[in-house]
Amino acid sequence: MTTTTPRQAVEALQANPSLPEGDDERFTGYGVMGMPFASGHYLALRDMVASSVGPAYRAIWFRDPGGRWTIHTTGPTELTCPRYFGSVATGTRVPGIDVSWSDDHTLEVTLGDDLTWRIELGATPATRMMTGMGGVLPEAGWNSNAVLGAMGPMARTMLHTGRIRLRGATPNGPHFKAAPLKIWRVVDSAATYRGEDLGAPASLDEQTRLGDFWLPQRGVFFVGRARFTPPIEQIDSGASAAGARMGQ
């Protein structure tokens, strides 16, 4: 069980933005896994403080009630979230996304004049238990398809989020492995996007997903890591280059 607050966990991560070992594409960060609203809109936040493929960046994922996704990112789209999800979401680069904490459990997110988003976090027995499990699971476990395959249904049952998968294929092709090391519940949230109040937090009529990545039906805040296999074109070009070198 942990008594660390969300703000303390984020500040510790920012003070030591390290990546796990590996030759895949790796990210370390925090954010809101997903947050549905009664209006049918959906928001998610990613603040990746370290990346093996480019600079640190922030991203806001936005879905309108018609199911159209836009990913606003502070980094190049080819090196951030649209790298894996851009085939089903419009990627757009923005000058900045601001995140500030008003207390240890409340953060405010703004995207220029487009978005204001308040997020209040809290711990529950289920989030404490899953955070405790995340703290003792070795890196080999977070890399294991079998372990991650079992943890998804466990998280769904404990957190009442709808379907959750911690491994699978992204819409662009690369496979992901997600390691939420610490989690908290979003206990309240309010947002305005381009002048429209998104309403109260509420599950969508039908759970949404991007490839094998299912977005939760209740708000979940995480601190953790993610791994992706390189895009297939990179694998092909790397194999071609290796073949050319061998032929020289």
Share in helix: 10-25%
Order of helices and strands: HEEEEHEEEEHHHEEEEEEH
What sort of overall outline do the alpha carbons produce when their principal axes are compared?
globular
Q: Output the number of helix runs.
A: 6
Structure explained in plain terms:
With 248 residues, this protein is α+β, with helices and mostly antiparallel strands. The chain contains 6 helices and 14 strands. It has helices at residues 6-15, 82-85, 125-136, 139-142, 145-159, 232-247, and strands at 25-36, 42-51, 57-63, 69-73, 89-93, 98-103, 106-111, 115-122, 167-169, 175-193, 196-197, 209-210, 213-214, 220-228. Strands 1, 2, 3, 4, 5, 6, 7, 8, 9, 10, 11 and 14 form a 12-stranded mixed sheet that branches. It has a two-stranded antiparallel sheet with strand order 12-13. The protein is globular and about 45 Å long.
Offer a concise description of the structure.
Helices cover 25% and strands 39% of the residues. The chain has helices at residues 6-15, 82-85, 125-136, 139-142, 145-159, 232-247; strands at 25-36, 42-51, 57-63, 69-73, 89-93, 98-103, 106-111, 115-122, 167-169, 175-193, 196-197, 209-210, 213-214, 220-228.
Q: What attributes does this structure have?
A:
two-stranded antiparallel sheet; 248 residues; disordered C terminus; twelve-stranded mixed beta sheet; single chain; alpha+beta; 14 strands; 25% helix
